[in-house]
Amino acid sequence: MRQLVWIAVLLLLVLSPPLLAEEALTNEGVLKMISLGLGDEVVVAKIKEAPRVAFHLEVDDLVALREAGVSQAVIGAMLERTKPVTPPAPLMPANLGMEVVSVSLKGADGETPVSLIRGDMSSAGFGPYRNMFMNYPGLKARTRTHDRRPVLLVTSESAITGGHYFLAKLDVDDDDGVRSLKISSAKSGLRAAFGSDRGLMAPDEDWVVPFEAVEESPGLWRVTAKKDLQPGEYGWYVNLGAGIQGAGLFDFGVD
Which residues pair with 134 in a beta bridge? Predict the structure, then answer.
């Protein structure tokens, strides 16, 4: 007989909803707490800690809550609990050739982050005289400096070497409203085909400025131009090939 009783209890627990589970907090529950004279702090705390909520917060519901004396702070807490939760973005795999580089311009006033911009490709000429250009929107970069030898702080997992990173000088095209960078020519294409580390997307040698790079800490490089920069438009050109930053430019200007 005792065994049958235990079986009945187990079946009741399996087939019935949890008796001890706390019910979802609803509009009626909030109104009940307000009618009991509980302060806003208590009601808001209860809303935040409730395991589940089932609020109705359409326009008519909000009007009814306000007419019933529910404060803006309590309604705000209710709205906050009903916001959809955005899952965190997945981390980018480091082994897929998608290295992420960041750049800051260091000056007397501190460090200023430099934004990455992408350009549109164009060509000029034909045959062996055909040249390729990357055209970046706008005539001036937002980030600017008066330092003729600005210091760039570059974070990069790979070493700052020729062929992947360049300090580029841009040509301003007033007619088209862009800043252009010559990235290849027939000559550089032949070099790339025969093993040059510059690659097809590397800037033309006459459009880059020599620099020195010192690794101040693992993955953080201090980059300085080897000669004074004339006033104009420049950029740290990333030639990683594959990845989201391939052929991207961290642009800045020298005034």
Answer: 121, 181
Please state whether beta strands 211-217 and 220-225 pair in parallel, antiparallel, or not at all (unpaired).
Answer: antiparallel
**Adjacent-strand bridge partners of 7:** none
In whole angstroms, what is the distance from residue 154 CA to residue 156 CA? 6
Domain positions in the chain: 11-81, 98-254
Q: Cα dihedral angle (19, 21, 26, 32), rounded to 10 degrees? A: 70
Q: Which amino acid is at 8?
A: A
Count of CB atoms situated within 10 Å of the CB of 50: 18
pLDDT of residue 6: 42
Contacts of residue 109, defined as CB under 8 A and 6 or more positions apart, other chains included, come to none
Q: pLDDT digit string (tens) for 186-214? A: 455 545 444 444 556 788 889 999 999 99
Q: What 3-state DSSP class applies to 11?
A: helix
Contacts of 7 (CB under 8 A, 6+ apart): none
63-81 b/e with 16+ CB inside 10 Å = b?
eebeeeebeeebbebbeee
> Distance between CA 200 and CA 191 in Å, rounded?
9
Nearby residues of 34 by Cβ (< 8 Å), 6 or more positions away: 43, 68, 69, 70, 74
d(CA 33, CA 41): 11
Helix axes 72-81, 59-67, angle to 10 degrees: 150
The radius of gyration of the chain from alpha carbons, rounded to an integer in Å, stands at 31
Q: What is the pTM of this model?
A: 0.57
> Average of pLDDT values for 3-19?
43
